[in-house]
């Protein structure tokens, strides 16, 4: 380890701060990558044993050296030049396996990068590792047959949230500057809430899904998981854009500003009218810790200039909305098409071959058998009715916002603390954003009371939901709230080395 590596403090450094250190020569990309790799080595499979990483990029230091050389020559690729990033292991990477957490796919290397991975590399990012996930993005407890169980760094008895929890735990523990996840129900925002992070689910189609191991085409999107709103905004600038091979992205062409960073305003809450969706708050004893934090958050929003309106919309009860999830109808067709598209590279060619292999975690068996049993799933009457319900849900939300003259709706991402390992993830509210396709951002709102297993408490996140393409407004709201409260804290089990 070099002297610089020993003296440079990487903990909680933002992308902007890291870029400044690289520009001034305080550190090189090679040294930065090595610091993060040292942290992964110290805390992921030893120390706290978080088990958040599935694989390390063996070419990471070589890529860093090349980017250092380009920097010296004055050739910067973009805002992420030399910055280490972690991907959920369902993003196609041509230089690393893409497993979905499935043991049978442990050696599967795609022929090319996913569209957004290519954009990250074009901007100078270094993919240093790929994170564990709920197998095939189906297990909300963040367990996979290949990667095992990921633990929450704030409370090692708990999960790190939904299926992007490996990214959440790793970014919370400062294993990289920022990370990427996918979100078909809750899976970007749940790890955000559970790990004192920012989880951003953008408007459907703002970021292309080409090259993502699919779960649902109607509900799924990709997005950043970061330690700050500013970092998430920098990532959006890099990732947003039209992809001719992904028709959904065409809807967003005229809605992407020159830079989202212009909306990072400390006074961004002034004049904002926010609807508190009381429908999504719990009323039992297990909900009180979250409710207390949310009451404080609402006062903070008022103190920073927001006007608060209270809403009760029974149609938005997440227990009702969750019944309209379309994943079981779409998964087989999408998964088979994905495997067929990769030809001989994949060790299996269909969902049926995966089921026959019996290698998957048994907790997803019922789902796999149910989706396989649907002969023509996209022609099922119930599927079409659920799609129509999605259109109705959009109208309910947009009308409620119009009737109340709202800039955004807010609620706790999760009504109760994130689940203990082995227990179901109860009380999550992210399905509204997933089925509507509207943008939503989760920001740290505070912590529960400390316990022996959670020395600073368990993180709790507040979620803001906006109209389609209201990213600028959501960034103003989220950044102003973040800067007015500063609730983010790193976990104590992964200190500076």
TrEMBL record:
InterPro entries reported in the protein's UniProt record: Amidase_dom (IPR023631), AS_sf (IPR036928)
Domain Amidase as annotated: residue spans: 31-472
Pfam families, sorted: Amidase
Protein name, per record: Amidase
Species of provenance: Neobacillus massiliamazoniensis
Higher taxonomy: Bacteria, Bacillati, Bacillota, Bacilli, Bacillales
